[in-house]
Here is the input.
Amino acid sequence: MRLLRTILMAAVLSGMLLLAVSCDSRRRSAEQTLRELSAAGELVTCEYTVSKVIKADDMVPWKIGDRKILFSCNAYLKAGVDMAAYNPAKTVIDREKKSVILVLPSPKVLSVNIPVEEIRLVYSRVTGLRDEFSADERGRLLRQGEEAILRDVPKMGIIRDARENAVAFFEPLLRSLGFEDINIYFDSL
Here is the structure.
């Protein structure tokens, strides 16, 4: 009887130890996964391709003639979460309730790329005694086009999509780590 009680007690203690170790390793796994993601830097969750037309009409009354130019280009915008700004202290993990509250940095545009090979001069006209647009002037016009694209970001919905896609990325990830009650929030800017 004493032997049976000892074996039963050893089995119960072993089971509790195994449960504690597995919960602890799962907890480390969730925290470790988030740490690894934050070390990775930027998590791109959305990419948009934006076609932009950039035009300039340079008519000034004190010069003879005018200049007009029209470019078209494709800009590639990537948006997502800058995981380097993730603060693990804001994440609340409750293993007993299998719940997690994850607070991520707000999504933002991470990059804008306008490949040179996708910039096309559509139209250029110079009349009178005017000079062609210089390379510097063309470069300034293209930068103005990029700034216009960035000003239009709120209207595009790329931030909303980046937010939704981040949630769609993290929910299954956290479920695979054993969480059932998952709440994902974003820091306000």
Residues 1-27 have pLDDT under 50 and may be disordered. Residues 2-186 form one domain. The radius of gyration is 28 Å.
